[in-house]
Amino acid sequence: MRTHRSFWMVCVMLALMVSACGGQPTPAASPSESGAGTAAAPAEQKSPAVVRVGWAGSPDTLNPAAALLSESFVIYELAYSALLDLELDGEYSPDLAESWTHSEDGLVWTFKLVPNTKFHDGTPLTAKDVVFSFNFYKDHEDFPYMTGYTTAFESVEAPDDTTVVLTLNEAIPNLFSQIVFLYILPEHIWKDHTEGAAATEFENLELIGSGPFKLKQYAQGEFVHLEANRDFYRTGPKVDEVVFQTFSNLDALVQAIKTGQVDMITEMPNTAVATLRNAENVTVVTGAPLAPDVTDIILNQAGGDNCPTDEGGVCSGHPALADRNVRLALAHATNKQELIDIILLGLGTPGLTLIPDSLGTWYNDKIADYPFDLVKANQILEDAGYKDSNGDGVREMPDGSRDLTFRLNWPSDSTVAPRLAELLGKTWGQIGVKLEMQALDPDALTSICCPAFDYDILIWGWGSDPDPSFLLSVMLTDQIPTGMSETGYSNPEFDDLFIQQSRELDPAKRQEIVWKMQEILHEDVVYIVPFYSKAVQAYRTDRFKGWIVDQPKLALDDVTSLMVVEPVR
Amino acid sequence: MSAVTTTSFGTIWRSARRNWMALAGLSMLAAAVIVAVFAPLIAPYDPKADLKVSIDDIYAPPSAAHWLGTDDAGRDVLSNFIYGARVSLIVGFFASFISVFIGGTIGITAGYFGGRVENILMRITDIMLVIPDLPLAVVLVALTKPSLMNIILVIGLLGWTGTARLVRSQTLSVKERKFVLRAKAIGCGHFHILRRHIFPLVLPLLVANTVLVISLAILEESTLSFLGLADPTTLSWGQMLNFAFTRGGVSAGAWWALIMPGLGIVWVVLGCTLLGQGLEQVLNPRLEWHHLSVGPKMVARGAKEERP
Q1: Which chain A residues contact residue B59 at CB under 8 A?
Q2: Is residue A217 helix, strand or coil?
Q3: Nearest CA in chain B to A345
Q4: CA–centroid distance for A390 within its chain
């Protein structure tokens, strides 16, 4: 499920995933291999080896400064270089930068670039292009994502052609997770498009970068045709071309791989897994997604002084949801295993907080979840004074003013939410809670969500960065008026810890703080997170081999995989 | 008054028995109603029972245990189908009553009084007619509380325009007839004329139209459910289609999960259409004959020989 609000983070995540591939998967590879890729050479003379990738989306623009959708970032990861790459095991590896050092205080970073690199149009890539790109992202505040990755940058300089000196205004622990998204743009092309709105309006239809693939042909909403960049500064791809073909829906994708129309699909419905497993020459793979989607049940807790009335806050949430006892009872009445079994058909893991298990060490696996226990849930409500005094099967507020009847909304394009709502209605009904269910158009959902807070309970989702900072920031008090906070949750202790973790340079100590923050969120029952979904992808075995499926994260459409697949002979 | 007796149900039944379309439609509808009413007795499984599925037994093909296979949550399609008839029929009947009531009132009023009243009412009708129904229904459903009642209201309140225009034109022709003019001449009041002379002649059209509107209402309900805008716990045929379509039924090749609700909708809609058209032939005085005709076929079929 790729939900509307999660788009931007999903994009980010995918971008991360994709960026992982820019270089070779060999960690810290020496930059000895330059020039044309050797592996692909024998394919000359014969018909080119073309990998056909099927997906249900398409890039919204080829301009990295303006892109919103995750599909765009998949393409950027193939066509652009960044200083570093994010690998499928969650580590950062050298890409355009072959080595780097930093000052004692962590404020000054010096990157050494791979020498003699070129853009796709043959122009040499120098440190000046890096400086130009970083400043370009930094100087614009209207870029959906890029601006956010440069907030800690004080200045960028290029003392010579292969050295970049980056000075930060504050030492931050997650610099690498931001640098992997900062694609290096050719200054000679972009210098005419830097002023104001021209930057986001530039269509960039040539997509000149320095990555392992270059653009051959592009039709918006139809396909993106890439060919191998034989001048790539590291080992190049083993295939000649990659075509990303857009299909109208997931069912069409499944049919396309079944019939051999495509060689790989980036997504598919879980319900088609059994069918495809039985199909000839098709292998279905599941695993932790590179960009985890978190499905969350959002409980409206905004009210009183926290209601952002200046930003249009209505704060019509049911008063019972402000009571932790009620939220706790709902958590105890949520049968996560049943939800996973039925909605995801087992392809997921029980959720705890917004930080998903695929964030690796940042995920606090020591938290004991509230077990599914209807007796206990009933007891909690009973003890807190929520009794069903009129015998209609629905409990009332302690003062008898209202029933525990909650509005439950979800985006109408979600494929998991209707079944989720149905199952929640069943178990929550057994503790005397009634739900008024309704799907809403994603735009309508945004307008009631936040900062309006004109809802009781929502089912929605977030995509995640490889770094936990973003998902944690969603629950900060100062994000309530901005619309990023969907719950209206406010806890000064949590806010303090957030600032601490954003400055803590020691990874172990930072992990401790991040774990503590998850404990607080879990203790306060800010969200109910039913599950973390697995990525489900499939590839054909009769045309290409070498897809990377043994890494901690699964992303066949990541550069990492597309760099190493080779034709079956 | 003969006008009343002509359209009494005994007469309708006698004529309808001779009309194969009406009979076929009636049988089809009756079958659907019986299935809906006795759903708990007929359905082999309880569609609200607890679920237990694994990735390999969703969309199970038809078998002895599940005659029509299972859906994306491992539920029996036949049982869902049987229970789904309830929602579709309830929405169909109630929404069409609302539509026909509103449309009938507006049509008769506009047609009988004419002049400014007609102008205002018919312009309102025209406006409602040109607003695309579906987007408006989607918006209204989103704005109101999600319940079966609201879906019924939305469909009913949007679907009356066709009836209004039809009834108006019938009223226009009826009110020019001699017996209406005579009634006016001897000083009968508007209400009396409407009730004793106009309404009885419009009623057959209304009955036939009601049945036709039922099919539109059922289609509209299925559309809204298919778009995922209905309460997911309300099991209707549109909802079944929605789940099968959005949750990979096509990929899984689960034709049973897609075809059955579709067939159900076709069955009821076809039944309504046949019955409605059959009734129209039987009842519509403009199509056959009416109580003042000398012979049964004095008025030609169609509207060519409109009386002065």
Answers
A1: 271, 274
A2: strand
A3: B55
A4: 47
The CATH topology of domain B3-37+66-306 is MetI-like fold (1.10.3720)
Q: Which residue of A has its CA nearest to B230?
A: A438
Q: What are the structure tokens assigned to A383, written together?
A: 């003890």
Residue type, A563: M
From the candidates B57, B240, B243, B246, which should be mutated to test the interface with A, based on the most A CB atoms within 10 A?
Answer: B246
Residues of chain B whose beta carbon is less than 8 angstroms from a beta carbon of chain A are: 51-56, 58-59, 72-74, 138, 142, 145-147, 227-229, 231-233, 242-243, 246-253
Contact A436 B73 (CB under 8 A): no
Global pTM value: 0.80
CA distance B184 to B181: 5
Interchain CB distance below 8 Å, B55 and A268: no
Answer whether A275 sits within 8 Å of B251, measured CB to CB: yes
| Beta pairing, strands A84-86 & A92-94 | antiparallel
Neighbours of B40 (CB within 10 A): 10
**Cβ contact, residue pair B248, A254, below 8 Å:** yes
Nearest in space to B218 (alpha carbons), one of B280, B256, B270: B270
H-helix segments, B18-54: 20-37, 39-42
The structural domains of chain B, with segments of one domain joined by +, span 3-37+66-306
Place of tokens 């004692």: A104
Tens-digit pLDDT profile for chain B (308 aa)? 344 444 556 666 777 677 888 899 999 999 999 999 999 999 998 888 777 777 777 888 898 888 898 888 888 999 999 999 999 999 999 999 999 999 999 999 999 998 999 999 999 999 998 888 888 888 888 778 778 888 899 999 998 999 999 999 989 988 888 888 888 889 888 889 988 888 888 888 888 888 889 999 999 999 988 888 888 888 899 999 988 888 888 888 889 999 999 999 999 999 999 998 888 777 655 554 445 544 444 444 444 444 44
* Dihedral sign of CA atoms A6, A12, A15, A19 in order: negative
Give the residue from chain B lying closest to A255, CA to CA: B251
Q: Which of A271, A275, A437 sits opposite B231 (nearest CB)?
A: A437
Nearest chain A residue (CA) to B142: A440
